[in-house]
Write a structure and sequence with these properties.
Elements: H1 2-5, H2 8-71, H3 76-103, H4 115-133
Helix pairs in contact: 2-3, 2-4
Amino acid sequence: MKADNASLGELLGDVTRDLSTLMRQEVELAKAEAKQSATRAGKGAGMLAGAGVGGHFVLLFLSLALMWALGAIMPLGWSALIVAVIWGIIAAVLASIGRKELKQIKGLPHIRKSYAAALFFHRLRNFVHAVTYGAAPARSMPADNG
């Protein structure tokens, strides 16, 4: 096993190289994930904006139709007030539900472990053991699951 025969300088070099590789890989992964997420989010937001505009017009014309229908049995001013009160109640309920949902947000998910991270910490552990006891422990390298 290499760790049994490696010098302190070689172990430190391995740890430094692995840390550098790990940082580069994590930065590249983060860039790729951010770009993909931003592209999908942009497309989704555009579609939702179009749906929102269409939905707004549907609600506007349905509200006008309800106002005119109520206006057939009462003065038009009162029918407009009734429709406005109905929309006020709907807005209050939606705001309450949305606020409750936002309070339940717990933050970002945990960052996944990678093989490079496992390799780095394995070599760091060997380095610390070598510095402390003069020899690296006889432990096998973690398997690459990726």
